[in-house]
Write a structure and sequence with these properties.
Layout (H helix, E strand, L loop, with lengths): L20 H9 L10 H26 L4 H30 L9 H28 L4 H28 L10 H20 L7 H30 L65
Helix pairs in contact: 1-5, 2-5, 2-7, 3-4, 3-6, 4-5, 6-7
């Protein structure tokens, strides 16, 4: 896991792919070097965590307020990017300090750099999208159309990319499989703390404001704890253990009743052995020793 290598997109993109921002976002923000999930139920928990965060961030506020402020959405995107740029390396650095007793940073260097590149790529894309939208509103004519279309494509690209990085959290699963739920929990609480400290309820009532502010971090925390609990109980993956000391992951699918190896010696003599050599003579001839061309196997 720690030494994940390989092509970024694994050759999945073509010229026609760029007409579909969803396909490009999946290839760019879920690279080929990110390991597959060890448990399908854990993967479903990640999807629930992403949906819960999106509903809390956009759906509840828009529904209660009865409006959708696009300018505020752009500002929130920049704020979230700044938080991610600060909190993600800080949290990973704390975990590296925790893991120092059982392993070294050198063992995780490749995966750490890949995750950092993915984080910077996503934040750069978000900043570029916000800049294009702000610029296009002050222009007119052909430039407005060109920049508007580009900003619209980038918006879809960032939206689909946000779903991808919310699941793998910038590829930190390649460093340690418990890092994505941990980072999701820390990030959502850090986003909610300013509102809790300042008492900013976003114009909502006291009850709805508290539900709105605490709903996202509490939901994400509960799902993250369940996710890490399953990883520890089923696969022995513990957050405090250095990734190099963890057992190799088992396949995500196990046949019902578990895998049972063949019983007995498969190479023992006898009719039950399907791999035994053919009997002497022609394999499709009558039973018994038989030489097809005289005394010698191929005649004399």
């Amino acid at each position: 896991m720690a030494g994940s290598r390989g092509s970024w997109t694994s050759g999945t993109l073509s010229a026609r792919s760029f007409l579909q921002p969803k396909q490009v976002a999946k290839a760019v923000f879920h690279p080929a070097w990110i390991p597959e999930s060890v448990d399908l139920s854990v993967e479903r928990l990640k999807r629930v965590r992403v949906i819960a965060g999106a509903v809390a961030a956009f759906g509840v506020y828009t529904f209660v307020q009865g409006k959708f402020d696009f300018t505020e959405v752009l500002e929130n995107m920049l704020t979230a990017s700044a938080v991610l740029l600060f909190i993600t390396p800080l949290t990973v650095g704390v975990m590296l300090f925790v893991w120092r007793r059982t392993g070294t940073v050198r063992q995780l260097r490749t995966s750490l750099f890949n995750s950092l590149k993915l984080l910077l790529l996503f934040i750069g894309t978000v900043v570029g999208t916000v800049f294009l939208w702000q610029t296009s509103t002050s222009l007119g004519g052909l430039m407005l159309v060109l920049l508007g279309l580009t900003a619209l494509w980038l918006t879809g690209f960032v939206a689909y990319g946000a779903v991808q990085v919310s699941g793998n959290f910038f590829g930190t699963a390649a460093v340690h499989r418990c890092l994505p739920p941990l980072l999701a929990t820390v990030t959502t609480w850090l986003m909610a703390l300013p509102d809790l400290v300042t008492g900013d309820l976003h114009g909502l009532s006291l009850t709805m404001g508290i539900v709105f502010i605490l709903g996202a971090p509490m939901t994400v925390t509960g799902i993250a704890l369940l996710e890490m609990s399953r990883l520890k109980r089923r696969y022995g993956i513990r957050l405090r253990a250095h990734p190099a000391t963890l057992p190799p992951p088992r396949p995500a699918y196990t046949p019902p009743g578990g895998y049972v190896p063949p019983q007995g010696n498969p190479y023992a003599p006898g009719p039950q052995n399907p791999y035994a050599p053919y009997p002497q003579g022609h394999p499709y001839g009558p039973p018994g020793p038989q030489l097809p061309y005289g005394q010698a196997p191929y005649g004399s």
